[in-house]
Each structure stands twice: as structure tokens, then as C-alpha cells.
Write a structure and sequence with these properties.
Layout lengths: L1 E6 L6 H15 L2 E6 L7 H5 L3 E5 L7 H6 L2 E4 L10 H13 L2 H14 L16 E4 L3 E3 L2 H7 L5 E7 H5 L4 H12 L3 E7 L12 H8 L1 E2 L2 E2 L1 E6 L9 H7 L3 E2 L2 E2 L5 H5 L6 H13 L7 E7 L5 E5 L1 H19 L7 E5 L19 H14 L11 H11 L10 H6 L3 E5 L1 H10 L2 H11 L2 H5 L11 E2 L2 E5 L1 E3 L2 E5 L27 H13 L4 E5 L20 H6 L4 E6 L3 H10 L2 E6 L4 E3 L4 H15 L3 H17 L9 H13 L2 E3 L13 H8 L10 H8 L4 H6 L11 H22 L6 H18 L4
Parallel strand pairs: 1-2, 1-3, 3-4, 7-8, 7-11, 11-12, 13-14, 16-21, 16-22, 22-23, 23-24
Antiparallel strand pairs: 5-6, 5-8, 9-10, 14-15, 17-19, 18-19, 20-21, 25-26
Amino acid sequence: MRIAFIIGYNSIAIPTLREVLEEESVKHKFEFIVTTQADCLKHLEEIKKANAIFVYSREIPAEFEKVLQDKLVFSVHSEIPSKCPADALLKVREFWINGGRENFRGLINLILRCLGLSVEVPEVMRIPWHGIYHPTLGLFESVEDYLGVYSSSPLVGVLFYREHLLYKAVEYVEKLIKAIEAQGLGVIAVFARKYQDEQIEIPSVEESIKKFFFEKEKCLVEAIVNLTSFSLTKDIGLLKNLNVPIINPITSFYQSVEEWENSNSIDYLSQVYNVILPELDGLIEPIVYVFSELEEDGSRKYVAFDPHAEFIAKRVKKWVEIRKKRPEERRIAIVLINPPCHSVEANIGVGLGLDVPESVVRLLKKLKENGYTVENVPENGKELIKIFLERKAISEFRWTSVEEIVAKGGAIDFVDYETYSAWLNELPEEAKTKLLKDWGDPKDVLEKKVKKEFVGMVYEGKFVIPGLKFGNVVVLTQPKFGCAGSACDGSVCRILHEPTIAPPHQWLAVYRWLTRVFRADLLIHFGTHGYLEFRPGKGVGLSPACWPEISVDDVPHVYVYAVSNPMEGMIAKRRSYATIIDHLYPPMELAEIFEDLENLIAQYKNAENLGEVSRAEKIYEEIIEKAEKANIRFRKDRALEDIHHYLSAVRETQIESGLHIFGNLREEKLADYIATTMAFDTHECASIRRALAEALGFNYEELKQNPSKLNSLGITNSQTLSLLHRLAVNTIRRLLEMNVEEVEPDLVEKILNEEVLKLARIEKLF
């Protein structure tokens, strides 16, 4: 008699299953084969001889289709059809999912009994679906019992897979617990099965979180480290109740530590399972921590990357500290973006669509209102920039010498060689060697013994830290990563486009000063986008030798980013461990120029349609004259077509209506914000322009595709699109002014009709 086991997912249960099979095969005298889903085809002939086949996989090779037809088949997943008594299948599934040695013994015996052997089949052994585990204290089924013997605090939650505990694959969990406790924190490490199965009463992960991370509805933990994969939860209410940062270390399913070290990123499937999906739930800091190796029997072994156990623990400690500190104790570093080599010093504090200086000043005022130690707050953004320029508190630039920066008070501190050397020597050898190769010995740099273009921001043998201090908040410009400042002769600029060159010594000096000397509790990069996240290193799954990881050190990082630029925001999130705080994009307005030319073209087409030849000719001459005066290029034989294409392109150009100020909505522009947000079709709903066009009987695609064509209103399609945008803004504004909680369709229709008539009168469409 022979039983075959086909096990998918490189399950860590394989070694335990083999051990139990060895014992039971001796006792009941049967043969067995255990193979993985990936290798089962190699054992096709052996499996053909089996009397029963157990399958734990959602797919197997097509060659097995015929083999399974005349066998007793027990399949855990419905994708592979079972051929066995229904009650037996249910129990086999229970044995497998509950897992562990005794349940595997029961599973084997049940299969044997189905094959006609007289064997006793035990009941399913109930093993807790979730609970608390501690390496030295053991297992606990309630948080009260655990806290009765465990007193360390403040507490950090750790969430990991029950299967890994069941099959003794928790070394990586234990290392992380130890690292967190070494930082002076307590740990509640919860094992869970993650996915609910109502058929056999497996609790959901939400139930596990509520049971072990809460006590009397109060959250017990200050942060959570999630060691599971895929989405954590869609229960937004639960996440809000937790109200703690959830750190998301990465597990790579398909790379060993060595393979990752020799690659530019973690494998792409692990990026999906452990980076992208958790991001959708709001999890942060995708720090690679666990790798996998395949054993000879096809099972997966999980291996921790030890340096990141300590790194994660240190970052968790900082998150906990900032929650625990009183506002007046918290220290914040704000880094402003100043793109290098844009030729002007006033290029400080840029950010896509954002008035960064004004936003920073308003943030400073808000912090002060909330009890933070903030002093000498500028009146507004203009004054902030004025102070920057008066004190020359900038990263050295072409028009400013470092001596001038120091003389005018733009330096908030200096870093000497001894301090810097200690920081330099902390770096992994790979990063340190590359830095020295690219930028020379820091001693030589500080003594100005290297080429003059390599000596940036050095004053009297020390690195300069430029910036402004406002009590417990410092505001500074991002250090240069490849610009020689006033010594620049253009030869260093190539570095701006070379992704492998390490940032210069002053870069490291500034960021380490922020985290080690100023002792920032929070690092904020303010505005889209800076260049921290683009510094050398792996794409996703950074190592200690990657420069974004080196730069942020162990300090929580917040990045204020435009919501309209999620692609690059994701780079900042993944490569600099940033928590993205989105801001609105400013409202957009359609450019409205050359209106008279477009009206003339419409008049020309009307005249042409009515057969008014002489009138059309006169209008045509006027169009040509005005187009030439406006320097619009056109072909003489296709003048009207070319001119109208040009006007359409200009009309469809959207221009920003001012800049957004972070956290401050311009009430008078609210309707424009909303219309801008709704201006384009999405996969979920039609744009407001399409909706209005179709409601008024226009073909929206026709309006877009033939902008110069005259329509039933006697105007061109592009003019009509412009009117639809104005109609959208006017209708939304009316609805906002009514301040109703729910908008009834009848009300919208009434307002829309009124606005259509109003617009038609203004534009003389009747």
C-alpha cells in the first residue's frame, strides 16, 4: 500500500509530516512519498503506484489529471477535485489545517482507514489558533495571563504566523523580540493564522488584534511590527482604534540573504506580497528582514538578516519615544528641497504645487500652539526666505562662499574630524570604501588638500551645518550631493546624473548631525521631491550600505508630498522609509487666451455653412491677420486647420491657480479644487465634464476628438469643453453654498439647468 503527498508552497510543515510518516509507515507497514508541487512531475511514475493521494496545492501539472481519476484523492483546496467520502475530506482538512505532529498522525490514519485498514483515528487535536508567544515564558491564551508574568513596558506588538510557531520556524521572530527588548521596550508577540475559516472556526486577524493588542478597548501597544504577508486588514476602523505606527518588515520568499546582497532589489513577487499590498493598508517602513532558503526536502527555511533586527528595533524605539515625549520636549528637523545647480540661491524650499515656505511657517505656528518649543517664528513664508538669504543659511552655492555663510550667521553648527570619523567608521565597509573612493579622505577634505571642487562646505577644518534654528525645530536646506558650490567649474555636475556615486562627506555630516547631535525625534522632508530617495542603493529592500537608509538613520521620517504624484511618492516611501503625508494639488484653470480668434473661426464656419461667401472671406482675412500678429505658425493651404489646432492645444493646457498651502484650504477656490479633482475619467467613475456633456446631449468623445468642429451650439467643440468646465465649477459652487449634508439628484438637476441658462445668456448662445 502506498500514499503520495503533493505539498505546495514549499510548506514548512514538510519535515514534520515526513517524521510522522516514518513512524506510522513502520507501525502500519505502508509506503509513502512526499514531494512538492514544483517537483511532483519528477515522481509521476511513483505517484501512479499510490493508492491514495493527498494534495495541498491549488494546482498540479496537467499530467496528473488522468492519474487522479482512479485514486482516492484528498485535496485541501477545491481547485483540485477530491475523490473521497465527504465526511473524511472534511476531517482530513481539519487535521491538516490544525497541523502539528498529532494531527498529521490522525490525518495519515484516516487515509489508511479509507483504504480499508483497521486503524484507530483520533479526534482532531485543538491547538490555539492565536495567542501570545515569548521565547522564555512560553505560550499564553490571554493577554491578562501574559501581563501577569511580563512587566516590561512600553509595549510593542509583533504579529507573526501561527504555522511558524507550530513547526519551530520562529528563530527570526525570537531575534526581533530580543532586539526590541534590548532597546528597553516590552513585546507582545502574537501568533495568528491570519485568514478566517468559518467552517472550522478559525478567527480572523482582526479578532486576534482585538483580543491581544487591546485591554478593555484600550490599545496596549505603542507600535506594531507586522511579520505577516499580504494585506493586513481592510478594517479602517480597527486601524484608527489602534492609532499606532505599523512597521512592515519585508520577507523575501524567493531570495536567500546572499542572493539579495548580490542583487539590486528583492524579488518582484515578494515586492507584491510584502511591500505593495501592505502599503495599501497604510503600513510603513518596508525594511527587508527575513529571507528564505529551500531545504533538500523542498520545504522553506526562514532566515533573519541580523543587522536589520537591531535597525528595526531602534526605529521602533524612536517611534515609541516620540509618542511618549511631551510636545515641548520633541525635536523636529525640517529639510527644504533646493534642487542643485538651478543657478539661483533663491531656489529654496520648492515643492510641486506647494507654497513650501508659507506652509512651513504655518506649521511652526501650529506646533507652537500645541505646546512645542518653537521660538522666533517668522511672520510668513516670505520672511522665512528673507531670513535664509540674509543669513546665507544655505548649502554653499555658486554665488556664496562658505566664509560668507559663517559670517552672516547661516551656520548652526560645525562637525570636526574626530566626530565625523566616528560616524564614517560606523558605515558598512562597502559604503565607506565607495565614499572614500568618490570623495577622498575626509581629513584631506577638511584640510583642503584635495581638488578645490571637492572641498564643499568646509570652514576652518570643520564641516558646516547650514540652517536656521527655531527652538526645538531646525529648518535647513538639503545638503548637496554632487556640487562644488562656489568652486564649481562645471566638472562636478556630471555627478548629478550619476546614480552610483556616493553623496559627499558633508551630506553624511549634515544627516548624522541631525540624528546624533541635534537628536531629532522626527525628520520631515517638506515638498515634492527631494533627492534623498534617489541616492545610491538597491531599488526596494535596502541594505545598511544603501545611502537612503544610512541617511535617515533610526529617526522616523515624514515626507510631505503632492497627492498627484503617487509614482515618485512610492519611491520616497520605499527607499527612504518615509511616511507620506499627502497634500492637495492647487486648483487648475483652463488657459483662456486668443478667445477672439476662436470666436472668429466659429463665425467663419457659420458664414460658410450659410453660404455667405463674401462675409466668410472677410472674416478669413481677419483671422489670418490676427494669427500672424500673434506669431502663430500655419500652412497657407491649411491655415484655418492649423490655427485652430494651435488654439485647441492652448485651451486644453491647464494652469495652476496659485500654490497650495499645506493644511490650509482656500475656501474661495474649493469649487475649483473639486472640479480639478473630477476633471478626468477614472476606472471607477466618469469625469464631471463627461457627465455634464452627456447630460446635455453631447458626445464627449466627439468633443475631444474633433475640437475644431462646429457643433449645434454654433461654437467649436473645444469651446464647448471649456464651457463645460465653467459649468462644473459654477454648479459645484452653488451646491457648496447651500451647505447641505446630502445632495438630492433633483436639486442638482435644478441648479444645473439654471447654470446652463445663465452661461448660455452670458455667451450669447441663444
